[in-house]
Specification:
This protein has helices at residues 25-41, 57-74, 79-94, 111-116, 120-137, 139-153, 160-173, 186-194, and strands at residues 2-3, 10-11, 48-50, 156-158, 200-206, 212-221, 225-226, 235-237, 239-241, 254-256, 260-264, 273-275, 284-287. It has 291 residues and is α+β, with helices and mostly antiparallel strands. The chain has two domains: 2-194, Neutral Protease Domain 2 (Neutral Protease, domain 2), CATH 1.10.390; 200-287, Immunoglobulin-like (Sandwich). The protein is globular, with a radius of gyration of 20 Å. It starts with a strand and ends with a strand. Residues 1-170 form the Peptidase M1 membrane alanine aminopeptidase domain. Keywords: Aminopeptidase, Cell membrane, Glycoprotein, GPI-anchor, Hydrolase, Lipoprotein, Membrane, Metal-binding, Metalloprotease, Protease, Signal, Zinc. Belongs to the peptidase M1 family. Its main location: membrane.
Length: 291
């Protein structure tokens, strides 16, 4: 329906013309997000171009991300709350098969393999991981890191490490990682989500007597429950509990990267606890039967 270009964005006429008396609300929303998607490509794709097709998510992930959140800044169409069911959930489903491709997919070369990269994972998962990272850094820090990435790499091609370094530098400058301990490595975090296929499910077992929460991560498979591959991810964790609930603070409180991690809930008793606030993290959660 549309195509970004170096100097001129092109659209089908139907995706530009809107008659308030004739055009449905749904189609007006389609027009808005197609406009946003292609405008985003003027920076992510044209000003800075992905180095090769194997990292196409650097273009399409950001365009899909801004398709929702740029449009949401302009029009009150609820694009921010639509992102989870329309993008995160569809990406989780595609990413649950036996052999999903990673976002960064070495070996892409033939026309067929290039075409295969224009996938739900490249677009939807790419955008979901970008959104997860925004909440890890906070929007202000994330925006500053992206601005530096674009400035440093303008009129050139870029690789994922260029993005990672720009965001890491912004995070360190503003203390975004201060609560995650000296072993936290932002580049390792991002690589675990872009260079590895799949995503984890967190199995949470809460001891309501002590308040300790044991969290086991395993790669999810829709057919068998768990993948046979022993894949570990660097996971930003958010949770809130009944005794002091807050569903607005989506800045992760913990980073887990081991197969099993124990976190103190800071309270004991039969309180409900919910992980992955606003589903900002690209993972699933299971709870013990009692919880």
């Amino acid at each position: 329906g549309a195509m970004e270009n170096w100097g001129l964005l092109t659209y089908r006429e139907a995706y530009l013309l809107s008659d308030p008396l004739e055009t449905s609300s749904q189609f007006q929303q389609i027009i808005a997000y197609i406009l946003s998607h292609e405008i985003a490509h003027m920076w992510y794709g044209n000003l800075v171009t992905n180095d090769w097709w194997d990292v196409l998510w650097l273009n399409e992930g950001f365009a899909r991300y801004y398709q929702y959140f740029l449009t949401n800044e302009v029009e009150g169409m609820g694009f921010d709350i639509r992102f989870v069911p329309e993008q995160v959930h569809t990406a989780l489903l595609s990413d649950s098969s036996n052999n999903p491709h990673p976002l960064t997919n070495p070996g892409v070369g033939s026309p067929r393999s290039v075409s295969a990269m224009f996938s739900t994972l490249t677009y939807n998962k790419g955008a979901a991981v970008i959104r997860m990272t925004e909440h890890l850094l906070t929007k202000q820090v994330h925006d500053q890191g992206l601005a530096q990435y674009l400035k440093t790499n303008q009129f050139k091609t870029a690789k994922p490490i260029d993005l990672f370094n720009a965001l890491r530098d912004a995070g360190m400058q503003h203390g975004a990682f201060n609560n995650y301990g000296p072993t936290f490595d932002f580049v390792e975090y991002y690589k675990s989500w872009t260079e590895q296929a799949g995503h984890p499910v967190l199995n949470v077992d809460i001891n309501h007597t002590t308040g300790q929460m044991t969290i086991q991560q395993r790669r999810f498979n829709i057919n068998t429950g768990y993948s046979l591959q022993n894949t570990l991810y660097v996971i930003p964790v958010t949770f809130t509990s009944e005794f002091d609930y807050n569903f607005q603070n989506t800045k992760p409180t913990h980073i887990i990267k081991d197969a099993v991690t124990v976190i103190d809930r800071d309270a004991y008793g039969d309180y409900w606890t919910i992980f992955n606030i606003q589903q900002t993290g690209f993972y699933r959660v299971n709870y013990d039967e009692y919880t």
